[in-house]
Specification:
The chain has 187 residues and is α/β, with parallel strands linked by helices. Helix content is 42%, strand content 23%. Strands 2-7-1-8-9 form a 5-stranded parallel beta sheet, with helices on both faces. Helix 1 crosses helix 7.
Length: 187
């Protein structure tokens, strides 16, 4: 089996920023674009940020066993990992990196076993997390409340990951995760 890196965290904990840094600093990594049924946000592109598909198409792909893992994150809102993404990345000889929520991370770790390194990015506090979500100006108050409730749920899974990194200093968190990944990948 091929190597995989799994980065999970609640929304606002810094996982996207850390994954971007990993992709810049560890050239043998390639990002796995997840499939989802939500609408694209401003600036998001199909096939780059997510594969945006309809709930009907998503359910059909599940029925055809085209996903490695998937879940209904919010009612009617599905996210998952397409087998075709893994095959695309591995065919180039790269290791795959995932940016997923905690349940997706746990499911991927179960699928890959020892061939995967799973890292949970923890915010320094719940208060800091809420401030980060508010400051990025992408969600209304109701969405932030929903994300905060989900964050509390996700934080309860942190101990299921190989490594937990507290993101109280972004530069330090990036350095630590890069070091963990380089130590895990074959030289």
């Amino acid at each position: 089996m091929h190597k995989a890196i799994i980065i999970s965290a609640p929304s606002g904990a810094g996982k996207t920023t850390i994954v971007k840094a990993l992709l810049e600093q560890v050239p043998e990594l390639e990002f796995s674009v997840s499939a989802c049924t939500r609408a694209p946000r401003n600036g998001e592109a199909n096939g780059k940020d997510y594969w945006f598909i309809t709930p009907e198409e998503f359910r059909a792909r599940v029925a055809n066993n085209e996903l490695v893992e998937w879940q209904e994150v919010y009612p009617g809102s599905y996210y998952g990992t397409l087998r075709s993404e893994l095959e695309r990345i591995w065919s180039k000889g790269n290791a795959v990196i995932f940016e997923v929520d905690a349940v997706g991370g746990i499911n991927l770790k179960k699928f890959f076993g020892e061939e995967a390194l799973s890292v949970f990015i923890r915010p320094p506090s719940i208060e800091t997390l809420k401030t980060r979500l508010q400051n990025r100006n992408t969600d209304d108050a109701t969405s932030i409340d929903r994300r905060m409730a989900k964050a509390m749920f996700e934080l309860s899974f942190a101990e299921n990951f190989d490594e937990i990194v507290v993101n109280d200093s972004l530069d330090d968190a990036i350095s630590l995760v890069v070091r963990l990944v380089r130590n895990f990948l074959p030289q």
